[in-house]
Amino acid sequence: MPTAIAVTSADLALPPQDERTVPAIVLQDLDRQPLDRALSALQAIVESHGHLVVVCSQAADPAVERRLHTLRSLLESDRIALFRPELPPLGLAVLARQLRQLASCDLGPGVLASAGRLLTHYIHAGALLGSVAKLDRVPVGLKSHAKSWVPGSHFGVLAHPEPQLVRIGPEAALTGPEFGTRMLVARGQLQSDWVTDTLAKSWNVQGLREVPLPAESARWWGTGRLIEFCAHLSDLSVLYQLVTSVRRSTCHWCGIDVIGDRCVFCSATPPVPVPDARAG
């Protein structure tokens, strides 16, 4: 069985990108279940799949993260990785789907889980907002705050990879990816065609699809008056080439192959080299 990729709510489990995309495991209402039931369910997943990568939004209820850490500690398992990247909910759902695509390939669990950090660099996630008065995840100047109280003001915000904020007008633009992407759009309580008609064209996206707005988006962006968007790489061969082009190393603690400088399962970092006393 391939490594399991889990999300903490059903609206973060996007439809498959292709026929090879493995289904997402949804850990719905994890913090509301009896502890023993949640523990048994998680243990069964690990036993059947070998390893589990849980992708969790930073906008999720803190009780969800606490429960995940509790369950991992009770299982005393180095086969569960908890990943909470600084991505808005729609971008997080895209990342989870990319990992689900890669889970069908010949990648070890450590490399697959490590790929999450790599792939975030290629995700452009933002939103069109009706107000930035309560936006605290992207730097907002006092002038923008003041303008957000003007009726009819809209703001284009890019949260990742580099924060950007513009007030929507004839010359408004956000710097987009320098490579071919597809775009997902999720509409909240805001009526506008700026994302689909203006932004998507300026970014030269190769395809656009609308999906339901994740429940955590309003909390993440500080308003329900929004249209969330995410430009991303969708081709499995491109994703696979990106991941396999990065140098691998073996975790000195748990022995699995990883990419990057920290094992996502046991959290071990490479040991500090000991100076050779004979040197010099």
In short:
This protein is an alpha/beta fold. The chain has helices at 35-49, 62-75, 89-102, 109-119, 142-147, 194-202, 217-221, 236-244; strands spanning 4-7, 25-26, 52-55, 80-83, 124-129, 155-160, 164-167, 182-187, 208-210, 226-232, 248-250, 257-259.
Shape: globular
The description of the largest β-sheet is: 6 strands, mixed
Got a strand count? 12
The tally of structural domains comes to 2
| Percentage beta strand | 15-25%
CATH-level-2 architecture of the largest domain: 2-Layer Sandwich
Query: How much helicity do the residues have?
Result: 25-40%
> What are the secondary-structure elements, in order, as H or E?
EEHEHEHHEHEEEHEHEHEE
State the distance separating the first and last CA atoms. 52 Å
Radius of gyration: 20 Å
Count helical runs.
Answer: 8
Q: How do the strands line up in the largest sheet?
A: 7-6-5-10-8-9
How do the helices and strands line up, and which of them pair or pack?
Blueprint: E1 4-7, E2 25-26, H1 35-49, E3 52-55, H2 62-75, E4 80-83, H3 89-102, H4 109-119, E5 124-129, H5 142-147, E6 155-160, E7 164-167, E8 182-187, H6 194-202, E9 208-210, H7 217-221, E10 226-232, H8 236-244, E11 248-250, E12 257-259
Parallel strand pairs: 1-2, 1-3, 3-4, 8-9
Antiparallel strand pairs: 5-6, 5-10, 6-7, 8-10, 11-12
